[in-house]
Amino acid sequence: MSTWEYAPAPESREIAGLKPTYRPFIGGEFVDGTGEPLKSVNPATEEVLAEVGTASASDVDAAVKAARRAYDKAWRRMPGTERAKYLFRIARLIQERSRELAVLETLDNGKPIKESRDADVPTAAAHFFYHAGWADKLDYAGFGPDPQPLGVAGQIIPWNFPLLMLAWKIAPALATGNTVVLKPAETTPLTALVFAEICQQADLPPGVVNIVPGAGDIGAELVNHAGIDKIAFTGSTEVGKLIQRSVAGTPKRLTLELGGKAANVVFDDAPLDQAVEGIVNGIFYNQGHVCCAGSRLLAQESVVDELLEKLRYRVSTLRLGDPLDKNTDIGAINSAEQLAKIRELTESGVAEGAERWTSPCPVPERGFFFAPTVFSNVEQSMRIAREEIFGPVLSVLTFRTPAEAVAKANNTPYGLSAGIWTEKGSRILWMANRLRAGVVWANTFNRFDPTAPFGGYQESGFGREGGRTGLEGYLDV
Amino acid sequence: MSDNRISVAKTYKLYVDGKFPRSESGRTYPVTDSKGTFLANAAHASRKDVRDAVVAARKAFDGWSGATAYNRGQVLYRVAEMMEGRREQFAAEVAASEGLPSRKAQSVVDAAVDRWVWYAGWTDKIATVLGAANPVAGPYFSFTVPEPTGVVGVLAPQESSLLGLVSVVAPVLATGCTAVVVSSADRPLPAVTLSEVLATSDVPAGVVNVLTGRAGELGPWLASHGDVNAIDPTGAGPVGRVEIAREAAGTVKRVLAVPEDEPDWTRRPDIARLRRYLEPKTVWHPMGV
């Protein structure tokens, strides 16, 4: 039998329309930030993509003031029907520029082009389209007649889904009548600044959206700024706790979407081939840089050997490499720092006695890559079972009874997501009822939709994004 | 009955895990009426009592959150029934604690009874109001249900010793959460009597635990406790609330936003308190043949 090799199928990087420099967006204009410029790097090649101007404390102040002016003078007074049309325009502009945004996202983030093209960008557009429709229907959202916006929202987003997280933040804020100052992640600021251009093309009133690139110190400036009414943060639990502490005792509202250590529970009656696809999607999607990744596989003891065999075979067929190649399944780790963290935790797994298996796939010499890895014989006490790795590393544990599966799944301070694989409907609902997690996927994994609320229990944060429920975080109710 | 009969005075104790223990610390403090006349010695709860109460509340959570909404509604209604039978006693305690004329105290008690009834009716409706079937763009059935967040620490209002207390505890129970309550420090007697009502109202042991003592002392322990999921800082006062909120950040607790001063508890509540103690859970399943 002959084997057919894949031919390279790279998307053209020219489509990204990469510019040598990008600048902060404040009060409807691109301005020279007075912070130290940063260089955004392509994690797949380690080459510098562009120089990005960053905000200083005074730029943050200017952005908050611009947002306040826009709130007082334009946005809060505008009828919902008109606000809605701006959001519909933005949704359309994202769709029109989707190819450019997808390529740029892949260059800046390292994720496979098929993911940015088929998931990140279309879902970002969908979020604006969905929330646009809410802008003039808030009376029907279940928070009483005429619910009021909060004012100026400070929003801080992570590097794993740069444009999509921006959409999750900005779309509901604007639909409910707030204005925003958003800080993209230090390593992935580019699509947010193209989004700023889209705001200009949509003729959005100046100051309604402000984008201030920078590192954690600029995030802290935003969190602590007295002119901010609401903070929305997506990122690590560690930083989330710092933010919650910072805003304690102030009138600022807060929503947090933090880390996770999701259990993906596979029962012995599950369709195993389908489950394997779901497990792979759960932990290797976006290089495992997903807060709701199914990073703990709980397999029923009677099927664990068969499951592991199928899983290892399937993972060994995943193609790792050039994120711009349309056949690539696993792209680059977003930064050297993150790669070091993944390596450190992986080494701890070996040191603590878990059995490591790593895909024999070729790994490019340049760029930040990590071959998909599966640990078996994992104990609950091990760091790889407790800590969020945020990389393509799966920890496999076992259970015998449904009650034991629930106990192990819930044995974590997190509570963002969980997965269930079984053919038995009553067991799915029994499990879904008992899993302490904000999102439960049964016989599927990693599904997202603007109509479906997303967010965590416990130390995975509070508040929801999406759906009617998601509006609450931006309304004074 | 002879006029010179010596009455039997009640020992006011804590309510933890369905029992009435003294404070583990052995401490008590004198409670007076609004004019300064001695009423009783109340148990002065300690950090250890807080921890015991959290253990009891956690143990009770699976059963209470897993009970049917209909069942929880009936239990809450039963609390109202039991309170109704003790109206005179509650009115006397509220009048003494808050210095109210007896007619006013009576109407406060009536409002407290009615509040249980109001929340009893919510248990089997709130999921309909806050839940959803999500029209996702794909071949999946997706629904969202609100579920109880867990153990809630409640620092009850300092002024309104009964109506305020019921107004902050009943919504916790209605959602299926369990509670560790610190009563008003200077006006704790109605809270202890309410505990006796709860103990005889089919509320399972540990679902509500009532500690008498100082919110300023006990609140930070509740706020930093790793097995408490949410906290209502009402009774901590504006300064104490800042410390509570800071402590709560260490475990990402839900901290209720409360007004600076105690609100008018006689006003009809809305469902904001129910919302705060509920976690929307979204479930997905593929559709296909």
UniProtKB/TrEMBL annotation, chain A:
Domain spans labelled Aldehyde dehydrogenase: 30-476
Any one GO MF annotation of this record: oxidoreductase activity, acting on the aldehyde or oxo group of donors, NAD or NADP as acceptor
UniProt keywords, alphabetically: Oxidoreductase
SUPFAM superfamilies: ALDH-like
Active site: residue positions: 257
Domain of life: Bacteria
Family: Belongs to the aldehyde dehydrogenase family.
PANTHER family: ALDEHYDE DEHYDROGENASE-RELATED
Protein name (record): Betaine-aldehyde dehydrogenase
UniProtKB/TrEMBL annotation, chain B:
Aldehyde dehydrogenase domain sequence ranges: 27-256
A Pfam family matched in the record: Aldedh
SUPFAM superfamilies in the cross-refs: ALDH-like (SSF53720)
Gene Ontology molecular function, alphabetical: oxidoreductase activity
Keywords: Oxidoreductase
InterPro entries per record: Ald_DH/histidinol_DH, Ald_DH_N, Aldehyde_DH_dom
Record-given protein name: Aldehyde dehydrogenase
Organism expressing this protein natively: Prauserella flavalba
